[in-house]
Write a structure and sequence with these properties.
mainly alpha, about 0% strand, about 80 residues, about 45% helix, 4 helices, globular
Length: about 80
């Protein structure tokens, strides 16, 4: 077991192997729907600002409350 706080260990390990930091891999692997969508999620451009905001909160992006929709998309893609 990696860490009791990691919800999706397989996803965490795969992200680490791709070069993600421990913190970023843990944030992604601990999202409520970690590993469930299988690439079937709609593109961020089709999400509402509210959906983007909640996803940014799930992955721990700071400053999200002041971001515009385009900024949230950029932060989610590069976090």
């Amino acid at each position: 077991m990696i860490d009791a706080r990691i919800k999706n260990e397989a996803q965490y390990e795969a992200l680490r192997e791709k070069g993600y930091s421990k913190q970023k891999a843990a944030r992604i692997a601990n999202t409520p729907d970690a590993g469930k969508k299988g690439g079937k999620a709609k593109p961020y451009e089709q999400w509402t600002k509210k959906e983007l905001y909640h996803q940014a909160a799930r992955v721990g992006i700071s400053g999200r409350s002041k971001m515009k929709k385009a900024e949230l998309i950029e932060a989610l893609r590069h976090n």
